[in-house]
């Protein structure tokens, strides 16, 4: 993996059975703002899709160009949790210590509620032990002072959702079918075939489950430790559970404005 541009330090780590957890703090506000405005901003804007470039290429007059720019600006500010999900994808790429692959930018589905994928915020692949593993994950964003925050509990909480992705056949079928249609190029098709083949051969057990908690509070291992131990009991090996928490120096409420400022600077 390349050197991370996400400036974090490890605050705590732990393992229990099939589960591990890690909390990291980002102290440098300026570098975090740059990461948010540049790396995360491109993800939120879905710049890799080429839509904006293609649309601009179709404008052959000044009037058409003006209309294109009006269309491209007609996007509401992303909410804190939406930025948190894009941030989680980027942080896992840059700062998880793993080779992660997300074949599809989930922002595209979040912008069309009817097309949103039930069952997981993160769907892709990870290289573990020299092999490609199917990876399902959930992202939660919280400013709550309590550790762990309420987003980790209940029917809409991270723990329940991660268990569902790992155990419920209906959810897994939906996720596999969704992923299948988004692995059209040769690179991702080979990953899909390897990872899903191993998943099926193991009767659905060879699976990496990832939980990401995004916080603007002080680091506390209690955010992840209890949930990690509970998931280890519910999802024993060969399934693996990895929980990450990133503690960030800017309040979640300020992220939309910070992202907007970063995009205007580019």
Amino- and carboxy-terminal Cα gap = 26 Å
Write out the strand line-up for the largest beta sheet, numbering strands in chain order: 1-2-7-6-5-4-3
| Principal-axis shape | globular
Main β-sheet description: 7 strands, mixed
Strand content: 15-25%
Total discrete domains: 1
Rg over alpha carbons: 19 Å
What class, by secondary structure content?
alpha/beta
Q: How much helical structure, as a percent, in the residues?
A: 40-55%
Written as H for each helix and E for each strand, in order along the chain, the element string is EEHHHHEHEEHHHEHEH
Model regions low in confidence, pLDDT < 50 over at least 5 residues? none
Compute the number of helices. Answer: 10
Tally of strands: 7
Q: What do the pLDDT scores average to?
A: 87
Can you give keywords for this protein?
7 strands; 266 residues; 7-stranded mixed beta sheet; alpha/beta; 10 helices; 20% strand
Task: Summarize this structure briefly.
The protein has 266 residues and is of the alpha/beta class. 44% of the residues lie in helices and 20% in strands.
Map the helices and strands:
Blueprint: E1 9-16, E2 19-25, H1 29-45, H2 51-58, H3 62-73, H4 80-95, E3 99-101, H5 107-110, E4 122-128, E5 131-142, H6 158-167, H7 169-181, H8 186-201, E6 208-215, H9 225-234, E7 240-247, H10 255-265
Parallel strand pairs: 2-7, 5-6, 6-7
Antiparallel strand pairs: 1-2, 3-4, 4-5
């Amino acid at each position: 993996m390349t050197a991370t541009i996400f400036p974090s330090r490890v605050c705590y780590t732990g393992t229990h059975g099939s589960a591990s957890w890690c909390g990291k703090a980002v102290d440098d506000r300026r570098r975090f703002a740059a990461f948010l405005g540049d790396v995360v901003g491109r993800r939120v804007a879905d710049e890799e899709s080429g839509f904006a470039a293609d649309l601009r290429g179709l404008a052959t007059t000044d009037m058409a160009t003006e209309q294109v720019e009006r269309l491209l600006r007609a996007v509401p500010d992303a909410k804190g949790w939406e930025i948190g999900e894009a941030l989680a994808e980027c942080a896992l790429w840059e700062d998880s210590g793993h080779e992660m692959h997300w074949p599809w930018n989930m922002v595209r589905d979040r912008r069309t509620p009817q097309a949103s994928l039930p069952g997981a915020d993160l769907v892709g692949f990870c290289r573990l032990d020299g092999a490609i593993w199917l990876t399902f994950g959930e992202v939660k964003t919280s400013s709550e002072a309590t550790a762990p925050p309420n987003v980790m509990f209940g029917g809409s909480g991270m723990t329940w959702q991660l268990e569902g992705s790992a155990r419920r056949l209906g959810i897994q079928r939906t996720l596999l079918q969704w992923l299948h249609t988004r692995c059209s190029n040769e690179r991702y098709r080979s990953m899909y075939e390897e990872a899903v083949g191993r998943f099926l051969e193991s009767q659905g057990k060879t699976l990496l489950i990832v939980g990401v908690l995004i916080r603007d509070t002080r680091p506390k291992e209690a955010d992840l430790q209890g949930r990690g131990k509970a998931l280890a009991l519910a999802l024993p090996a060969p399934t693996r559970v990895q929980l990450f928490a990133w503690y960030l120096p800017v309040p979640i409420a300020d992220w939309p404005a910070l992202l907007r400022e970063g995009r205007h600077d580019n």
